[in-house]
Amino acid sequence: MAEGAALRAVRGCLAAFPREARELGWTESVPYLDRPPSPLEFYREWVSPNKPCIIRNAISHWPALKKWTLAYLREVVGPKVVSVAVTPNGYADAVFQDRFVMPEERQMPFMDFLDIVEKKVTSPNVFYVQKQCSNLTEEFPELVCDVQPDIPWMSEALGKKPDAVNFWLGESAAVTSLHKDHYENLYCVISGEKHFLLHPPSDRPFIPYELYQPATYRVSEDGSFEIVDEKSEEKVPWIPLDPLNPNLEQYPEYAQAKPLQCTVKAGEMLYLPSLWFHHVQQSHGCIAVNYWYDMEYDLKYSYYQLLDCLTKALKVS
How far apart are alpha carbons 167 and 130 in whole angstroms? Predict the structure, then answer.
């Protein structure tokens, strides 16, 4: 009897917590800043309270904004072989057929990839340069001089350099499934648009997680894709829900979540705080660079871990 009362109390607290968090700190939309802030201002107003914002005029001095046409990238990178994620449906690192399916990582000349983006060559598959191991510095060092190796005011605010700087270019069919990262993320759009759907960490009680067998897309001899299990790997916790078309019969709790949606346009920078859930779409041929700074594993992280553990415990009960 006492255990049942305790579970009801925890369930009530978890239901109330996201609402109180929104009322205390998060607005109904992502705010804009017209200039990059000072390091102290940014840390105090955005990083510490874990609040997103879109910053204008933060990268207006980058040569990339004028130089990075597809023709320029073809000339500078050209025949160099790079890593390209290839899927049959545009969903890499996503739940499909009760598996957590990773893309085929295809090594191909960059100019061949651009032929597909520019529709000079047709393919039934979806191609996306999205390797996230600091691929800008590792695979595209020719382009670093057109941007910056770090964001100075962010580096000063956090007292560290970014762990990774990533280059993104792909087709409009390439979608990033709902997930979170343990990074402070500065996402800079060079051309085109990125469309973000965001959930604060406090929405965790309404967002489903399941454990899935990891698998990888591989191309068969006839050119079709097959899903091959990575049997030696441990199961992966991932979010099975599509926030654009949620199955509320299967995941009724999600109806209580309140996502924020925003579009980041060319020349703009999104500050995406650590542990925020995000789902991303893009315009065709959108080019972006993002900076991942490792988060502080402080009290905010401990609060999130507690929320996560309580949510899992209620599901088991």
Answer: 7
pTM over 0.90: yes
Which residue is listed with tokens 């959108």? 286
In sequence order, the 6+-apart residues with CB closer than 8 A to the CB of 181 are 274, 275, 292
Neighbours of 309 (CB within 10 A): 10
In the structure encoding, which two tokens stand for residue 5, read together?
């009362």
For the chain, strand residue ranges (E) read 32-33, 53-56, 81-87, 91-92, 94-96, 99-102, 104-109, 126-129, 164-170, 175-179, 183-191, 193-199, 210-219, 225-229, 236-238, 260-265, 268-272, 277-282, 287-294
The answer to whether residues 143 and 105 touch, using CB atoms and an 8 Å cutoff, is: no
pLDDT tens across 178-190, in order?
Answer: 999 999 999 999 9
Residue found under tokens 């004028």: 66
Domain ranges of the chain: 27-297
Q: Nearest Cα to 294, choosing from 279, 275, 278, 270?
A: 275
Q: Which residues contact 120 (CB under 8 A, 6 or more apart)?
A: none
Question: What's the CATH superfamily of 27-297?
Answer: Jelly Rolls (2.60.120.10)
Read off the DSSP letter of residue 236.
Answer: E
CA distance 64 to 188: 11
Chain segment 162-171, per-residue pLDDT in tens: 999 999 999 9
Of 40, 37, 43, 65, nearest in space to 148 by CA: 65
SS3 25: coil
Q: For 187, which DSSP code? A: E
Q: Is residue 209 within a helix (H) or strand (E), and if so which, with residue range?
A: none
Pull the structure tokens for residue 33. 């800043």
- pLDDT of residue 247 exceeding 60: yes
DSSP assigned state of 123: -
